Amino acid sequence: MSQLPFLVTAWLVLVGLVGILTSRNLIHLVICLSVLQSATYVLLLGVGFRRGGTAPVLDGVDPGDGPLVDPVVQALTVTDVVVNAAITAVLLAICVQVRKRQGSLDPDGLRSMRG
Amino acid sequence: MRTRTRLVLATLGLVGVGVVLTRGMLAMPDAGRAADAYRTLVVATAVEDVGAANVVSAVLFDLRAVDTLGEALALFAAAAGLQLLLRQLSGDEDEHRARDAASDRREPTTSDAVRVVALGLVGPVVALSIYIAVRGHVTVGAGFQAGALAATALVLIYLAGRYQAMHRVVPEAVLDVGEGVGAGGAAGLGLAGLVVSGALFANLGGPGTFGTLGSAGSMVALSVLIAVEAAAATMLVVTEFQHQTLELRPSPR
What we know:
The complex is a heterodimer of chains A (115) and B (253).
Chain A: H1 4-22, H2 26-48, H3 71-102
Chain B: H1 3-26, H2 37-50, H3 55-63, H4 65-85, H5 112-134, H6 143-159, H7 163-169, H8 172-197, H9 219-245
Helix pairs in contact in B: 2-3, 3-4, 3-9, 4-8, 4-9, 5-6, 6-7, 6-9, 8-9
């Protein structure tokens, strides 16, 4: 079972891709992209996981007490979550504009871009 | 391209990606037994040089603070991009705005239970967000989490049905200033480190007493600035979307 986080990562990537490819609604598509991106959280945390380790917050814990899980990948995950939020916000704004301009959220029903 | 052809091509591609990805993931070193030389160094540096008990925060706001500045600027750019994307364009003034079709109906009121709970939570949530922002170096949480919490407080006011009050409490001009102060202050703090100690985002102020509020030097200031930036950017995003969904109602005379 030691590869479980990495297999979950692969699964999330594939499920997200299937969702994006078969999406009939732009908002659904944005959510699928979020699912796809959440694979990176699982991957990062899986890389930093340490069996029997505690959280890297030494609040009343002596650093010599036992193993800690990797703090660097956890910090990278925080960055990842923030970037995901920023991207989702901008993409949803684009959805709003598409709906206004084209009257539809179906990616197949969109006419080509106009100036 | 026809839907069917596209589906066949997509399936082929997905199977390829799936095989490569699964093989690659199976070849990863076992989760939980990875090498830990770098981790040991980071923990030692965070404890001895930075003086932060929360090593994740030490990485975010000291050791890799340049990344965090980039992250704050990404939030800044997202909020700015949203204002650009959702601005009122000429031509969509009348035809595309949602219009209230039954302007004479009674305004739906928020239930008292929701209102009491939501408004009652605003104070504690703001207090918690300040607590998390200034104590991110000692215990869990730090700038970004605090910013998200502060934005939650704003959304709670909205949830209580106080849309107008929400804008009185935090007008957009304040949010714009907050965003500028947060992002600009974080960059300024980094440059101050460059001037004083010769390294970008060098920690100003000693490690202090480990585990106390005064420890970790200027890392705390960066955490607070990032909290301001994250809160302002998130609130701007929320208000920007709310402008879109408002129905136009003829003002009561």
